[in-house]
Amino acid sequence: MRTLCLFVACLVLVPGVGSPALAQFQDAPSFDSFKVAVWRGRIAPLNLNSHPLARKFRTGSREQIKEAGVNFAGRYTLVSLGCGTGCAINGFVDARTGRAYFPNEFIGWTGIVGDYDPPEGEDSWTYRADSRLLRAVGRPNIGRPGEERYGPSGIYYYEWTRNRLRLVKFIPVGSYPKADPPVRR
C-alpha cells in the first residue's frame, strides 16, 4: 500500500508526468516574467470621451479608480462592472491620462465555466500592479456587440501591451470546451 501511495505522489509531483492538464498548469506564465515599474504619480480623472463605456459606467469606474488606485500593468486600474448574472464588463483606466480601454473579450465576459472545481484560494481574476499579465477564469465574449456568444471555458492568460490584450496561454477547464456557434440571421 505504501508503494502505491508513493507512486501516485510521484505522478502528481513530477513535472511532465501524470495528466496533461497538470502539465499545462505547470507551464502557466509567471507574473514576474511580465514585470513593469508602478506609476507613483497623481492619478488622472476618468476621461469620459475615451470610450463610450467610460461614460456609461462612469460612477462605478470612478469609485474603483479611487478605491483601488493603480492595480494592474504599472499604471492602470482594472475596473469590473456587472452586466447581469455571471456577466461582467471589464476594462482598464490609464492612471496617467484617464483614458479608458474596454477590450472586446472583456465586454460581456462570463465566469460561468461549468464543472470546473477551482483549487482553494483561486480567484477568478488575478493581476498585479507590477505585472502586465492578467489571469482570468471564464469565457471571453466572441460575439458582435449585444450578442451573447462566448469562447471556450478555461483559464486565460493575457498580456496587456500597447493598449491591447494579447493571449499568452489558454488552459481549457470546465464544461464548455468549444466556442458558441455563430448566430444565424
Radius of gyration: 19 Å
Q: What characteristic shape results from the CA principal axes?
A: globular
Oligomer: single chain
What kind of sheet is the major sheet?
4 strands, antiparallel
Number of H- or I-type helical stretches: 4
Q: H/E order of the elements?
A: HHHHEEEEEEEE
User: Class by helix and strand content?
Assistant: alpha+beta
Proportion of residues in extended strands: 25-35%
What is this structure, in a nutshell?
With 185 residues, this protein is α+β, with helices and mostly antiparallel strands. It is 19% helix and 26% strand. It has one domain (19-172).
Keywords:
single chain; 185 residues; alpha+beta; 4 helices; 19% helix; globular
Structure commentary:
- By secondary structure, the protein is α+β, with helices and mostly antiparallel strands.
- The chain has one domain (19-172).
- It is 19% helix and 26% strand.
- It is built from four helices and eight strands.
- It has helices at 2-13, 20-26, 52-56, 58-68; strands at 76-84, 87-94, 100-101, 107-110, 125-127, 133-138, 154-161, 164-172.
- Strands 1, 2, 3 and 4 form a four-stranded antiparallel β-sheet that branches.
- A hairpin with a 5-residue loop joins β2 (87-94) and β3 (100-101).
- The longest helix is centred in the N-terminal third of the chain and has 12 residues, at 2-13.
- It is globular, with a radius of gyration of 19 Å.
Give the helix/strand layout.
Elements: H1 2-13, H2 20-26, H3 52-56, H4 58-68, E1 76-84, E2 87-94, E3 100-101, E4 107-110, E5 125-127, E6 133-138, E7 154-161, E8 164-172
Antiparallel strand pairs: 1-2, 2-3, 2-4, 5-6, 6-7, 7-8
